Amino acid sequence: MNVLKKFLVAALAVCMAAPAVFANGDQEGGSGGGKPLIGVVMPTRSEERWNKDGNAVKEGLEKLGYAVDLQFSDDDIPTQLNQIDNMITNGVKVLVIASIDGSSLGTQLKNARAAGIPVISYDRLLMQSPNVDYYVSFDNYKVGRQMGQILVNGLKLDNPPKKPVNLELFAGSPDDNNSVGFYQGAIDVLQPYMNSGVVHIPSGQIERTIIGTLRWDAAEAQKRMENLLSRYYSGNVILDGILSPYDPISLSCLEACKAVGYGTAGKPLPLVGGQDCIVASVKSILRGEQYATVLKDTRALGAAAVELVDKILKGQTITGLDTTSYPNGATVNGRPYVVPSLLLDSVIVTKDNVQKAVIDTGYHTRAELGL
Ligand code: GAL
Prior knowledge:
With 371 residues, the chain is of the alpha/beta class. It has helices at residues 3-17, 20-23, 48-63, 77-89, 106-114, 140-154, 178-195, 208-211, 218-232, 247-259, 279-287, 298-314, 354-359, and strands at residues 37-42, 67-72, 94-97, 119-122, 134-138, 165-169, 199-200, 241-243, 271-272, 292-295, 327-332, 335-338, 341-344, 347-350. 42% of the residues lie in helices and 16% in strands.
């Protein structure tokens, strides 16, 4: 377990020891105490971003006069199903769901539709069900392209050294549809460099299903990195870069590399990007270890979800919807169902723009970053 995970698990233990109202989420009475109740479900409390997301949505909705039942599912599918069942029973007016396994909620989504509860798929697309009303997320394919571009920029692939650049590739959780966009975007950027021989993948492991990391588990990625290093990187074969779809994976890959001597004179750390702009990664970027990350502003995503809930309940027109990018595998009237989506923009963060993109925008404070 990495340090961040340990801290969050410890924090969770403290919450669970707290009075019942806290342990049960932030529910304000089954019916919302007279206010319309909104159900918000996040996959886990043990990752920095979902805490931020959950709290941003909760605070935003409360400001508009809603009551919020916010639940975190401990990355456990039965727990998530239960939480949603309870929310439907408690009469929530809208469900905002960031799933663990996007395809596992079919029954709950059907029940929500039958009860007239609109469903917003939050950040991760709910799959294989027509009972999903909206999707709020980032342009995940573009995020993937940014992951690839980080390697192109950092490793100067357009101005290549004589020797091929050795890369290893990591992908996200296979049960999370976002992993598909991230991978496809990154591969579309990197493929020409692989084809021309500028980039070499010594392990030969390229398929998304082979390089995937179930539940985005950084410890699992670290083990895979250790195995790759011991199997394919002996003698003069040096790892130059890593495609990473998620900051904790980047950090644990760097740990695996340090453990076999990378980061010492003559053997620099491989260049790695990431995603989510977590505090530990921004600190690593400032130390010159992780090279970059992709910032997806959870405050903006939370605000988009809040506005959507409010518009749905007020019967207002929802504008700016993308109606072509996200088919979710279901069919309606014999046609693929494309979930109407609101897609936000993401930003590459390196040492050069941390101040502007992260600190000036208040995403992380100087104190959080230890500055
Ligand atoms: C993805 C999300 C990423 C990252 C990852 C692990 O679905 O889009 O930003 O947070 O899950 O939690």
